[in-house]
Design goal:
- This protein is an alpha+beta fold.
- It has a single domain, classed as TT1751-like domain (TATA-Binding Protein), CATH 3.30.310.
- The protein is 47% helix and 24% strand.
- It has six helices and four strands.
- It has a four-stranded antiparallel beta sheet with strand order 1-2-3-4.
- α1 packs across α6.
């Protein structure tokens, strides 16, 4: 789990993207006495890529910056994210604009393959 989060952070930095936050859902749950499988959300992006998307579709700001959820499923660490094509469809984005978000797929793939 931690190795996957670290790889994602390294890849995000190497691509020149901004890591806005790492939200430790399971850590916060533990802080208030609740149990949750290991779950962390990485929020990252690029103003150069995301701003034109939000200019064209202001509600896209609900889904931007991009997010990758790293979570423990039994013995497996999984990484989930909303596909750029789904975001494009949700906000009626032109292909050029949804293509600006496509980098998340390569980032997650590189982190998972380690």
């Amino acid at each position: 789990m931690e190795e996957t989060v670290s790889r994602l952070e390294e890849i995000i930095a190497a691509k020149g993207l901004k890591l806005f936050a790492v939200i430790d859902h399971s850590g916060e749950a533990a802080r208030v006495g609740l149990r949750l499988r290991d779950t962390k959300l990485l929020v990252f992006g690029s103003p150069e890529a995301g701003t034109p998307v939000m200019q064209a579709a202001p509600l896209a700001a609900l889904d931007l910056p991009l997010k990758a959820l790293v979570w423990q499923d039994g013995e497996q660490t999984k990484v989930s994210y909303t596909a750029p094509s789904a975001l494009g469809a949700r906000y009626g984005l032109a292909e050029e604009l949804s293509g600006r978000l496509a980098g998340i797929s390569a980032i997650v793939e590189a982190a998972v393959q380690g």
